Amino acid sequence: MVLPFNSVETFSINVSEKHELFRRAVREFMEREVAPHVEKGEKEGTIPKEILEKAKEIGLYGVSVPEQYGGQGGDTLMTAIAQEEISRVWPSLSTRISVGGLFMTPILLFGNEEQKKKYVIPVARGDKVAAFANTEPSAGSDVAGIQTTAKKVNGKYVINGRKIFITNGGIADYYVVTARTSPPDPNTRWKGISMFIVEREWKGVKVLNRIETMGLRASNTAELAFEDVEVPAENLLGEEGMGFKYAMATFDRTRVGVAAQGVGVAQAALERMVTYATQRFAFQSPLIGFQMVQEKIAESLTEVNTARLLTYWAASLFDRGLENEAIVAASMAKLYATDIAEKVAIRAITVHGGYGVATSTGVERLLRDVEVMRIYEGANDIQKLVILRETARRLLGIKM
């Protein structure tokens, strides 16, 4: 036993030539087609339609979704690689695409065949935009604290409530929405939450406002209201009262993608730091010749590659069907990769000096972007609790 895992075999990573070929294809697309639009897109808060269409053409919306549901049929590692490479160039685009996965995952895990065909296929193909409406003004990390309600009336569910900080919220065609179908039990607060698929065009679905954020500024973040929204019974996802469990299972699987986003941002910061340090001269010497700069680069090289290995390992565990180990590893990867992305971005800014804080260089944007990543899909402080509790419960058989 290698605490907390059973064997050193657990630590293998399944990387093949197809993964590297896929990486090269995504990187070429991002550098050739996307990079020229990043600065303008961030200033205007939008992602050009032509970029979204080209991403659709090469299948970036449903990388690991089964082919029968409109995806590419790839594995979890391919999705991680895609998110890393997209985030290396434009994290806002990565977020726009990855939230589609956040929507599709619970449907693929718990939905019926009709729901998968109706809602997953168009999102996986990039024909429709989707969002995951879970967070509320008074319920973020405390998912069990949601107050949105869904009451059954004449064979339909009527949803009332507000959601906030919803990525793609203002542009989505479909939402997965969590709502209470029964009051919380004081001893088991998570019970009574259900999950629904809601369409934007339905009466009572309202986008209240777009929320401006410090980072990922080209990503659409919105506050939503659901006012007497009638949802057909067939749009209940899975079983009534199981929405909390479904949400947790979804985050367990999509967290690897956030880790990969962190790796992408960290890689971008590292590359910019090295490039600038070799080109910029001070005191008649390139910056890379100074020991303090060398130290920053060496630490960053070590941490970025460690984060990548941790992220790829978590993805490989999912692909090998080792769910308990994968869930723990995914939280570790999310925590570590986004934390070190923050550190590397700060080092890159420091090495750039005044240019590091100038918005025209794009270096400071990396720090702003990663601060958002450290919060969504399970804030990093919460991940520390998840790592300990899930390790105890899933791997050591200890109740906490």
Automatic annotation (TrEMBL):
Record's signal peptide: none
Keyword presence, Oxidoreductase: yes
Superkingdom to which the source organism belongs: Archaea
Acyl-CoA oxidase/dehydrogenase middle domain mapped to chain residues: 131-229
Keyword Electron transport: no
GO biological processes: branched-chain amino acid catabolic process
Pathway: Amino-acid degradation; L-valine degradation
Residue stretches spanning the membrane: none
Cofactor(s) listed in the protein's UniProt record: FAD
Domain Acyl-CoA dehydrogenase/oxidase N-terminal: 16-127
Domain Acyl-CoA dehydrogenase/oxidase C-terminal intervals: 241-390
GO molecular function: acyl-CoA dehydrogenase activity; flavin adenine dinucleotide binding
Matches recorded under Pfam families: Acyl-CoA_dh_1 (PF00441), Acyl-CoA_dh_M (PF02770), Acyl-CoA_dh_N (PF02771)
InterPro entries: Acyl-CoA_Oxase/DH_mid-dom, Acyl-CoA_Oxase/DH_mid-dom_sf, AcylCo_DH-like_C, AcylCo_DH/oxidase_C, AcylCoA_DH/ox_N, AcylCoA_DH/ox_N_sf, AcylCoA_DH/oxidase_NM_dom_sf
Keywords, comma-separated and alphabetical: Branched-chain amino acid catabolism, FAD, Flavoprotein, Oxidoreductase
PANTHER family named among the record's database cross-references: ACYL-COA DEHYDROGENASE (PTHR43884), ISOVALERYL-COA DEHYDROGENASE, MITOCHONDRIAL-RELATED (PTHR43884:SF12)
Family per record: Belongs to the acyl-CoA dehydrogenase family.
Name of the protein described by the UniProt record: Acyl-CoA dehydrogenase family protein
Organism: Sulfolobus tengchongensis
